[in-house]
Records
---
Amino acid sequence: EVQLVESGGGFVQPGRSLRLSCTGSGFAFGGYALSWVRQAPGKGLEWVAFIRSKTYRGTIEYAASVKGRFTISRDDSKGVAYLLMNSLTTEDTAIYYCSRHALTVTDPFDFWGQGTLVAVSS
Amino acid sequence: DIQMTQSPSSLSASVGDRVTILCRASQSISTYLNWYQQKPGKAPKLLIYGASNLESGVPSRFSGRGSGTEFTLAISTLQPEDFATYYCQQSYGAPYTFGQGTKLEIK
């Protein structure tokens, strides 16, 4: 069974950093592109970043709203993807979902984690 | 960036009704259009990919059509478990954008 489990969320003050983890199981983790998608309270879905598989050089893209502040990475040996979030603002408050692309980045998000809440507040 | 616009934003319907949700892209995205269902407190679930392909395990009452800039999601005979929020999403190119969502409520 394919599973994605996020962790690392919590309450943090503006300007601080947080690192989220996404642990995958039940599939060949290294062969898939992964994205982070977030959802602010009561709002819609916003794609944040993706990282391709090593087959596609592990290239990365970010949404403009997080570029320069967030860093996505992956450790295929551990089956984990990360999202390092620096210089957090209240606008970053959201549930953060890890999602798997069906194979490549032009494929849909076919599996999602349960999400982890990041709350930025002073 | 490609803008995705859904209509309506909310919809009231009864069990057994047929409903249609429209999604428009600000530029052509071929058939790189996906539909998701989200229930309160849950992660989104993939329903339709590539504009018209039914994800495995999704009931056949769900269907998708369209290409280019205009797409539709139809639910042929609403069941109680279908009342949720639906999102379209383009996977043509980054940044991947979602529609604002359509909340389907029980009349």
Note: Chain A touches chain B through 23 residues (CB under 8 Å).
---
Amino acid sequence: QVQLVQSGAEVKKPGASVKVSCKASGYTFTSYDINWVRQATGQGLEWMGWMNPNSGNTGYAQKFQGRVTMTRNTSISTAYMELSSLRSEDTAVYYCARGRYYYDSSGYSLLLDYWGQGTLVTVSS
Amino acid sequence: SSELTQDPAVSVALGQTVRITCQGDSLRSYYASWYQQKPGQAPVLVIYGKNNRPSGIPDRFSGSSSGNTASLTITGAQAEDEADYYCNSRDSSGNHRYVFGTGTKVTVL
């Protein structure tokens, strides 16, 4: 069965960086994009970006451009999301999710069909 | 700020029908997908494309779209449907970037 297993909780100081991992199993890792989504406590979902594990190509939400880097290690089917220059507003649960696309004659949509369990990142001095 | 707008909260009597809407310019060109999230859990995909349900999602969930508005309808709401619901679609830049809606809390009375 498809599983995405994320690394454990992190506590970081303002200005530091954090790197969260997402290990995929149960499918061919290079066949589907990995998306990253975060959620601050009591807040909504925020899409951060996508990475194609086959090519390494990425696309980031404008808000995170310059601060986020999404990478992968295909030999161990693991995706990574690194966020730098952390501030208190970055305290949130970070999720990875497998992304695929639905197409028909009228349009298309991204669908995030499997999600990791989430990683809490706390930024505090 | 989100480019997809949802009502913050709606309520529905047990067994009745509720519609959750998502408004945004990008919905004129792209489908929305819909996610259900219960407290302390990761989101779950419930609807994608024109009106498609992943395996395991009950058929009381359906989707539709008109103009700049996408809708998720729960027909015959159950107690277990009480959750937050989020839409997701391309952002209006059209540059393979995506955005979530502001979210709707559904309460089943």
Note: The mean pLDDT of chain B is 94.
---
Amino acid sequence: AQSVTQLGSHVSVSEGALVLLRCNYSSSVPPYLFWYVQYPNQGLQLLLKYTTGATLVKGINGFEAEFKKSETSFHLTKPSAHMSDAAEYFCAVSSTGANSKLTFGKGITLSVRP
Amino acid sequence: GAVVSQHPSWVICKSGTSVKIECRSLDFQATTMFWYRQFPKQSLMLMATSNEGSKATYEQGVEKDKFLINHASLTLSTLTVTSAHPEDSSFYICSARDPGTSKGGTQYFGPGTRLLVL
């Protein structure tokens, strides 16, 4: 069984400040980990993913995340927030099998203050 | 690359009618597609997994006779909400898994379809 925990439902930062969105996972097998972003009334866009190899993964729009097995974490960061980063962010985990499904966290709303 | 489209983007229908939503992978072949439902301010709830050429696998609690899924080709899956009622109003999102090994079987999502049943 797999699960994702995203603590808190809302994060607010000032424009230019560091963005840190936390994600912890539970998985009985080596996981694939994903971060998706959702803008209002739209589908999900893949920000980045970890499958194997380098534990620090870089994604689009300046975001990156680090897979820490010992902490079962996959936190998302961006050094400097932009107004356009305001959206809903979902962390997700899947197994590596051919028929694996995504298990989503409940999501975090990121607000960016001018 | 890895673009998934959905049609229509929104639909309003009367109670008792059926609504069909299409999901297409535009630049890759997807042997597996997924259908999700999302309520306001909530996460995505997986409804069913659709495999090309076979019957869909529904999650527990999802009525397969209510939500008909067809995956007749490697680029098209359809979800039909039969005899829709107001409680079926929701945001429906599909995704398609890119089977290419370099992409780790990543799911790419469509833009969603907002259904309002009056």
Note: Chain B has a mean pLDDT of 91.
---
Amino acid sequence: NAGVTQTPKFQVLKTGQSMTLQCAQDMNHNSMYWYRQDPGMGLRLIYYSASEGTTDKGEVPNGYNVSRLNKREFSLRLESAAPSQTSVYFCASTMVSTGEETQYFGPGTRLLVL
Amino acid sequence: KNEVEQSPQNLTAQEGEFITINCSYSVGISALHWLQQHPGGGIVSLFMLSSGKKKHGRLIATINIQEKHSSLHITASHPRDSAVYICAPLRLGGSQGNLIFGKGTKLSVKP
């Protein structure tokens, strides 16, 4: 199992450019998440998907869109990047088993918007 | 005021010491996660607990839901335990979309 994979690992964008961050998991998890992590702040939820075909906004959704393409893949799109979106982005998926919930995180994508 | 407070923010210990990291929260929760973020950035889930105590190897997590407090203990600390430890309560009635995160405690264990 590769677990949760993210591409790219690092990206530099100019203000106004668009890009899509890709995330895939091979653990057959229903729930997937996108978080951002900024210095001095905790992880913040951007969007999540409880199951294939559904998506919901998290704490900081403005400036982002998501697509749950299938059970494996959950992508995050920046339509017009802004310097405030400079951050480290983590994708995660959740396994639920006999009342236990474990989150599995991808390695992260470092995004710099100039 | 932050909904989740961790203390200390930074902690330096000598190898072999007993470590305690504290997490307090101000909202009603149904469970709480402890996460470990490695120096390279990767995040690993350590525990999810909703009551009492859990133990995995040298790691012990406790929670008192009524007092809105959880602790993570590391016995016989080792330099490989150096990481950021993140507390993440799950808001009551929420799905996993309602996880809230502390800012983390940075632990450095010296040999």
Note: The CA atoms of residues 50 and 68 of chain B lie 11 Å apart.
